[in-house]
Please model this.
Amino acid sequence: MFWFNADRWRWVHVAFPKVRFLIVLLGLVPYLYFADGVPLWPGLAFVAAGELLQLWAAANLFKNESLAQRGPYAWGRNPMYSGRFLVGVGLALMLRIWWLMLPIFAVIYIVYVHARVLREEERLLEYLGEPYTEYCSRVGRWFPRRLPRLSEFVSWSWDGVARNRQWHVTLALVVVVLLVVARRQWL
Model:
């Protein structure tokens, strides 16, 4: 049996979303304490790339309406999670203890996200049926199986960004980055 079985990791999928805001708030103070001593630009580059990927994914996602197959979904089935991973890597790289936080983040994130993706895939298969099965055969879970046509790849909808509330995440990231910059400048 595969180690990342959806039933085995169901508790992660259920527990984490309920406490993630509290975890972020509790983690902000120690995060800001360690947010110095390293160049800021590598972390900012990862955060920016990850958030742009998340925005692009949100712009092409219309939950419970249609199967997302355009934009970054033409490349991989989970671009939102890939973007979040890049953001997390960037935030870890802004810390003087990045060498410790990066592997801790990576392990926790991969376990959580893989469990969540398995559950989502079960639900999408039930909900969408054959079109989802065909999409899965064409597009890899994390990495591309083929290069998408340009017409599939170039796609954006501000309505999608608004409906998926991705601007909340963008705003939160801007606040965290501004706090890191302020901490480095004045504390």
Notes: DSSP finds eight helices and no strands in the chain. The mean pLDDT is 88. The domain at 10-186 is CATH 1.20.120 (Four Helix Bundle (Hemerythrin (Met), subunit A)).
